[in-house]
């Protein structure tokens, strides 16, 4: 693997100076991509799998796979020996040069809520494994629920819960947290090591750990980019629980509603006092276009809004984005269109706990995106829920979906 990495680092260096114009096609079929989150340490790799195919119009489509998730990408520019790929919903891009049609080298660019950065990227055609190209003897089965400490023993320690399904050497699953989940993770178990990864346009994430003789996960490392690196440990615990998501965020004493007045994607001021909200049950999402759990929530609510809007439901997404309003509104419109959400998206300012509580003074606390507020027809808050368990969590997603439908139907009755 080390020689493979070094070879593509050389190609990346050449890519910086290349200005080739010859038209080069890219090979169809399976590819293995690798992102190097720490340029000075090429041994740390975030691998992912994708598939290249052509449409009837001879256009290219790229499908990124993370476990059961398939991300269809059609925003692709192929010009000469250069390739630009823009991942849907979010703003992340891949810019690379093509070598021989079966190799790519360039940069994966992540656009966050406050900053952007590039990471070395390379890919090879004809490779469909994620971490290793051969099976090793399976000595552990990690299937189950894992109580996980991130930054154990540190002042920044927090807890999440891992849920894994292992089949042979293959491992899929996710981590549940108080603000949502890590979505679709895929990887392998071999020897005394486990590793999982995902690349979905919002996050580039790598989880690694060693399996101790007593079956615990130790010396874990979570890496999500150049500045996101955390230690973790875990032990099996089928009864592990997270904080009650309905008690994480609360209203201040004396408040019964959440008021808002912000511009939408068309730069028009939208307020709870507007006629369109009078006598309507209103769901307010505290969200962001950079937030993967917010994306999963928006996709679900797109369908729910279509079903329940005729019955008197309105949904408003308050988006906390970069301070560049023009750029923020562009991202919001893209997010809105590509999730299919037909409700209002409003620009509420920059992200951050202090800013959220400043512009929404009724909140006693704020602890995560998304946070969803359900108000009845008189605009009295009936429920506040922090976090979102997406489809990558299986039964948790179905339970959440049923719970959301239940509360929507209740607020429509009042």
Account of the 3D structure:
- With 414 residues, the chain is α+β, with helices and mostly antiparallel strands.
- The chain has 3 domains: 2-125, Lipocalin, CATH 2.40.128; 144-236, Beta Barrel (Lipocalin); 261-411, Glutaredoxin (3-Layer(aba) Sandwich), CATH 3.40.30.10.
- It contains 5 helices and 25 strands.
- The protein has helices at residues 2-17, 292-308, 325-339, 353-359, 395-411; strands at 29-36, 46-54, 60-66, 69-73, 76-79, 82-86, 93-99, 103-111, 116-125, 144-150, 158-167, 170-177, 180-181, 185-190, 193-199, 204-211, 217-225, 228-236, 261-264, 269-271, 281-287, 313-320, 344-349, 371-375, 381-386.
- A 9-stranded antiparallel β-sheet has the order 4-3-2-1-9-8-7-6-5.
- The longest helix is centred in the last third of the chain and has 17 residues, at 292-308.
- The protein starts with a helix and ends with a helix.
- The model is unreliable at 6-20 (pLDDT under 50).
Keywords:
about 425 residues, alpha+beta, Lipocalin, Glutaredoxin, 3 domains, nine-stranded antiparallel β-sheet, eight-stranded antiparallel barrel, 25 strands, about 40% strand
CATH topology of the largest domain: Glutaredoxin
Low-confidence stretches: 6-20
The biggest sheet, with number of strands, parallel, antiparallel or mixed sense and barrel status, is: 9 strands, antiparallel
Measured by DSSP, the beta-strand proportion falls in 35-45%
Number of strands: 25
Globally, the shape reads globular
Q: How many domains in all?
A: 3
Rg computed from alpha carbons, rounded to a whole number of angstroms:
22 Å
CATH class of the largest domain: Alpha Beta
Strands of the widest sheet, in order across it, are: 4-3-2-1-9-8-7-6-5
How helix-rich are the residues, as a percent range?
A: 10-25%
Secondary-structure element pattern, one letter each: HEEEEEEEEEEEEEEEEEEEEEHEHEHEEH
Give me the secondary-structure category.
alpha+beta
Write the CATH homologous superfamily of the largest domain: Glutaredoxin
Distance between the termini: 61 Å
């Amino acid at each position: 693997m080390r020689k493979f990495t070094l070879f593509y680092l050389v190609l990346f260096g050449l890519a910086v100076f290349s200005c080739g114009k010859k038209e080069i096609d890219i090979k169809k079929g399976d590819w293995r991509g690798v992102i190097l989150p720490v340029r000075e340490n090429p041994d740390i790799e975030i691998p992912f799998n994708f598939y290249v195919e052509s449409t009837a119009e001879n256009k290219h489509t790229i499908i990124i796979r993370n476990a059961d998730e398939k991300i269809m990408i059609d925003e692709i520019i192929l010009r000469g020996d250069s390739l630009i790929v823009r991942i849907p919903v979010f703003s992340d891009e891949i810019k690379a040069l093509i070598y021989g049609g079966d190799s790519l080298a360039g940069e994966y660019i992540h656009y966050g809520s406050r900053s952007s950065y590039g990471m070395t990227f390379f890919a090879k055609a004809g490779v469909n494994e994620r971490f290793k190209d051969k099976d090793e003897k399976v000595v552990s089965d990690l299937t189950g629920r894992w109580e996980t400490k991130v930054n154990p023993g540190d002042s920044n320690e927090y807890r999440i819960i891992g849920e894994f399904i292992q089949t042979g050497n293959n491992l899929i699953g996710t981590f549940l947290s108080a603000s949502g989940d890590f979505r679709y993770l895929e990887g392998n178990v071999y020897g005394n090591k486990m590793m999982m990864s995902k690349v979905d346009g919002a996050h580039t994430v790598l989880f690694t750990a060693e399996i101790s003789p007593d079956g615990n996960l130790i010396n874990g490392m979570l890496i999500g980019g150049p500045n996101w690196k955390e230690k973790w440990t875990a032990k099996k615990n089928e009864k592990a629980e997270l904080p009650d998501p309905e008690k994480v965020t609360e209203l201040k004493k004396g408040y019964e509603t959440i008021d808002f007045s912000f511009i939408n994607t068309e730069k028009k001021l939208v307020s709870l006092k507007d006629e369109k909200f009078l006598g309507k049950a209103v769901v307010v999402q505290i969200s962001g276009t950079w937030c993967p759990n917010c994306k999963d929530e928006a996709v679900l609510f797109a369908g729910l809004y279509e079903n329940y809007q005729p019955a008197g439901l309105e949904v408003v997404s308050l988006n906390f984005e970069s301070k560049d309003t023009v750029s923020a509104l562009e991202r919001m419109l893209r997010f809105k269109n590509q999730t299919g959400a037909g409700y209002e998206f409003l620009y509420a300012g920059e992200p951050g706990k202090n800013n959220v509580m400043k512009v929404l003074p009724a909140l006693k606390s704020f602890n995560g995106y998304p946070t969803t507020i359900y108000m009845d027809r008189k605009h009295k808050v009936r429920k506040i829920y922090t976090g979102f368990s997406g489809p990558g969590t299986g039964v948790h997603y179905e339970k959440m979906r049923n719970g959301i439908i239940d509360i929507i139907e209740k607020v429509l009755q009042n």
